[in-house]
Amino acid sequence: YQVFKGFGSFAGRSSQMMKHANRDGIINALYGDGGLQLKVVRCTIPPDFNGTVTEEMEAENWIQQEAKNKYGVSTFIASAWSPPYKWKTIVGQAAGKGMNSLAVKHYPDYADYISNYIDYQEKVGLPLYAISPQNEPEFPTTDWDGCIWWPKDTATFVRYYLKPMFRDRGIKTKIIIGETANWNFANMYLALASLYLPDEDFDIYGSHGYSLPMFPEFKYVIYGQQVMQWRGVASNKERWITEASSTDSFDASMNKGIQLAVSISRLLHTGNINGYIFWSSLQYPSNEALIIDNRQGGFFFPRVYYVYGQFSRYIKPGHIRIGASKSLFAINSNIEVVAFKDPLLNTFSVVITNNSKGRNEICALSFSGVQLDENSITAFVTNDQYQWSPMKLSLQENGAIRIKIPPLSVVTIIGKIRV
């Protein structure tokens, strides 16, 4: 199955983090060995870039430099929320309301603008792996920057302006298309865009990992758990979740953690994603952030942070997803399972989520055609009582791993394969 590129988080809206009294601790919690060990940083293509470094750009670059220099992070991607406001159909308006879009006469200007930003990142030692010309192109925002791009608009801009500009300037940065808010909606958007866009002109299908607005208020979204297999899109393209969080009332418990675990698992095993980026790294109490600023110079971790670590600490760039048949766990639909292997080190990582609120689940993991190094096998659990804590498992005579998964828990099992 797919080769994984990494887990990450967003470096935007970053002045709060750069000015935080415990900023080094926050950075370590995101990228350090004792933290999430994230390997990807997402940043912003600003709408007012002219070569001058703004306060926000300085903060984002600081996070990227810290991640790179201290923790070896080398994968940086950038998304635009809006082209320069003066080039839009409603001149000077930041938001996407009123179906505000990029004026066609400024397509060449915007292609040059993005290319200049890529050059800037290169000059400061932070070369971009990929860029997206528009965050959530379907959404007519009212309170923040936005811009409407219909699928054919995206295809036209990328095919006739952005990709030719990259070729002329020798830019190797990958191009992401899409980044719509919901995975299933993204399929429709990307399939339509792909009708007008040759495969050689872009590299990555992007989506966000949000649900549709939740009934009955339709005022918030959560982690998208309805994940269908895409149709009508190229099978040879990387697939990334470039943003995900939950916008309902703050809940630091495993209720949100389990929602995240189910969403990530399904996006990995059904969506075949190659990368996953959480929305915000640090905020005041909010489900939108991995780390919570306590407003007193400190910070704390909701369960979502630890659940994310059950994936990010053990599924690394270069790992390959392997089949994990749900029939192994068919007695209970509350179980989600996803498995990866490291082809170089012959190690494996299996993440199991028990979505049940009151039932322990006994799982037996059998590995087809290989022998395990029984001395290498370890399991870690996160729930409301524990975080990344070692737990007991047993090896059966037939080589299967037997383990009890507590209610509302995420367990990661790692080990080596004998060769």
Name of the CATH first level of the largest domain: Alpha Beta
Average pLDDT, all residues: 95
Q: Give the N-terminus to C-terminus distance in angstroms.
A: 21 Å
Number of domains: 2
Strands across the major sheet, in which order? 1-2-3-4-5-6-7-8
Number of E strands: 19
For this structure, the CATH topology of the largest domain is: TIM Barrel
Architecture of the largest domain in CATH?
Answer: Alpha-Beta Barrel
Radius of gyration: 21 Å
Strand content: 25-35%
Question: Helices and strands in order, then pairings?
Answer:
Elements: E1 6-10, H1 15-18, H2 23-31, E2 40-45, H3 55-71, E3 75-80, H4 107-123, E4 130-132, H5 151-169, E5 174-182, H6 183-195, E6 204-210, E7 238-243, H7 254-269, E8 275-283, E9 289-293, E10 299-300, H8 303-312, E11 320-322, E12 335-342, E13 347-354, E14 361-365, E15 371-382, E16 389-391, E17 394-395, E18 401-405, E19 409-418
